[in-house]
């Protein structure tokens, strides 16, 4: 589906060695590690989505396990950490991303990011080197990892002994100096690519970056509400309300030296920051940042629980938090909003399955440089949109196959009649069924 196919065709016929580059050549979507992992899944299992998904879900559950360890390391109690990860795993944005292999960049980047964070929190010998390597892998998996050195500097400051600020800052920089150097080098590289991006991507492009503070705040408010399916509530319409709330929480966290609160808030805002500058909004962008928002919430609840005295109030509070988190997730999954989204994706995949079965019958005789004309009327040919027709290119491992879509039937037939090469004229039905109306396999 869509990026799941389009990502694969990008490196069709290119070796893994040539895929992996150290420095980015473009400011957006230059993510060789993510592309390589998606290609590994395809090379291992082909178009068998179920088997690909099993491996992909293992990575996702690895993120949940590492997230739990991070919550515990930052002082969140075990019951509350379990409840928080249960909430994270039940969010619609998590479910949608964790079952969409086209979002491999977000899922794998979070895996490297969490591993790097846990390593930087470790006092074991060589942990900083491991953390720096994982950070570099995260950075070449998705661009938002560029903010990691800032987050690690915050962590290092809190880990430093209670010394004067200058000394604490010196110790913190010494702890994360490799991350700072890597981040600085890549930041300079991205800055050098900005003029080219401005020349090739105008304001009308959905990925055009607008670093206006008001735009950023509006997007941040929208994304925050979107996590819980509340994008039509008061929060997105009053973004300065969120700024006030986050500002108050930050002051509280700094005053009380609450690392889970400060780090959770900082990580949520800065990992989401790059996409708040673009008009294109996707739920997949929330997969990593929302884990840190939940860490923030868990840190605040943990502080609230600590104000209760005695064992019984704490037990009641722990139980209440866990039940509330799971009940909220269960209620949301029963909502019409969630069901509508699930039904849409299930329907699209079912239609695409029918299309793939019919299209596979063409593969044995599909000649190089074939032109495929798809007459789909007002229907959306889901399987053939990427590329277009990356499905055929991947199945035949042939870039020369070409598709013509989105044309009225009369124009499509005219183009077909004027075509001298190997060609197919296909009929596409609402069910996704595909039929051959006419074909000429070889040149006369």
Please summarize what this structure is.
The chain has 444 residues and is mainly alpha-helical. The protein has helices spanning 3-9, 16-19, 32-45, 49-73, 78-90, 92-98, 104-120, 127-139, 148-159, 165-175, 177-200, 213-227, 234-237, 239-256, 259-276, 289-306, 311-333, 336-360, 390-396, 409-418; strands at residues 371-375, 402-404, 423-428, 434-440. The chain folds into two domains: 3-334, no CATH class; 361-440.
Mind explaining what this structure looks like?
It is a single chain. The chain folds into 2 domains: 3-334, no CATH class; 361-440. Helices cover 64% and strands 5% of the residues. The protein has 20 helices and 4 strands. Strand 3 (423-428) and strand 4 (434-440) form a beta hairpin. Helix 7 (104-120) runs antiparallel to helix 8 (127-139), helix 14 (239-256) runs antiparallel to helix 15 (259-276) and helix 15 (259-276) runs antiparallel to helix 16. The two termini are 36 Å apart. The model has no long low-confidence stretch (mean pLDDT 85).
Q: Report on the biggest sheet.
A: 4 strands, mixed
How does the overall form come out from the CA principal axes? Answer: globular
The unreliable regions are none
Rg, Å, rounded = 25 Å
From the helix content, strand content and strand pairing, which structural class follows?
mainly alpha
Helix-residue proportion: 55-70%
**Approximately what portion of the residues adopt beta-strand conformation?**
under 5%
How many distinct beta strands?
A: 4
> Which H/E pattern describes the elements?
HHHHHHHHHHHHHHHHHHEHEHEE
Distance between the termini: 36 Å
Count every helix, treating DSSP H or I runs of 4 or more residues as helices. 20
Report the mean per-residue pLDDT as an integer. Answer: 85
Taken together, the total number of domains comes to 2
Cross-sheet strand order for the largest sheet = 2-1-3-4
């Amino acid at each position: 589906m869509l990026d799941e196919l389009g990502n694969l065709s990008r490196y069709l016929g290119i070796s893994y060695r040539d895929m992996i580059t150290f420095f980015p050549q473009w400011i957006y979507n230059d993510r060789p590690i993510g592309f390589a992992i998606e290609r590994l899944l395809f090379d291992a299992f082909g178009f068998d989505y179920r088997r690909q998904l099993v491996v992909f879900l293992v990575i996702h559950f690895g993120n949940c396990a590492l997230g739990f360890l991070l919550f515990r390391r930052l002082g969140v109690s075990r019951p509350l950490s379990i409840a928080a990860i249960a909430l994270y795993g039940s969010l619609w944005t998590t479910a949608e991303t964790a079952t969409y292999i086209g979002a491999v960049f977000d899922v794998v980047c979070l895996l490297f990011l969490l591993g790097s964070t846990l390593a930087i929190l470790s006092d074991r010998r060589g942990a900083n080197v491991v953390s720096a390597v994982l950070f570099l892998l995260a950075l070449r998996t998705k661009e938002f990892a560029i903010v990691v050195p800032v987050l690690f500097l915050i962590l290092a400051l809190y880990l430093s002994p209670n010394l004067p600020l200058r000394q604490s800052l010196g110790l913190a920089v010494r702890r994360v100096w490799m991350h700072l150097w890597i981040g600085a080098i890549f930041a300079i590289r991205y800055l050098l690519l900005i003029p080219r991006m401005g020349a090739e991507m105008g304001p009308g492009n959905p990925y055009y970056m607008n670093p206006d503070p008001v735009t950023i705040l509006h997007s941040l408010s929208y994304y925050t509400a979107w996590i819980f399916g509340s994008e039509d509530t008061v929060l997105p319409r009053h973004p300065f309300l969120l700024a006030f709330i986050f500002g108050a929480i930050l002051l509280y966290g700094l005053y009380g030296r609450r690392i889970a609160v400060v780090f959770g808030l900082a990580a949520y805002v800065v990992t989401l920051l790059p996409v708040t500058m673009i008009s294109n909004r996707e739920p997949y962008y929330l997969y990593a940042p929302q884990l840190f928002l939940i860490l923030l919430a868990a840190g605040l609840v943990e502080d609230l629980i600590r104000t209760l005295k005695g064992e019984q109030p704490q037990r009641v509070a722990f139980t209440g938090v866990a039940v509330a988190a799971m009940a909220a997730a269960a209620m949301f999954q029963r909502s019409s909003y969630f069901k509508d989204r699930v039904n849409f994706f299930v329907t699209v995949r079912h239609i695409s399955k029918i299309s793939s079965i019919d299209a596979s019958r063409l593969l044995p005789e599909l000649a190089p440089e074939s032109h495929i004309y798809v007459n789909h009327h007002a229907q959306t040919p889901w399987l053939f949109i990427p590329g277009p027709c990356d499905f055929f290119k991947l199945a035949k491992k042939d870039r020369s196959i070409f598709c013509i879509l989105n044309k009225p039937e009369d124009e499509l037939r005219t183009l077909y009649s004027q075509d001298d090469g190997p060609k197919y004229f296909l009929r596409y039905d609402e069910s996704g069924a595909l039929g051959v109306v006419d074909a000429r396999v070889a040149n006369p």
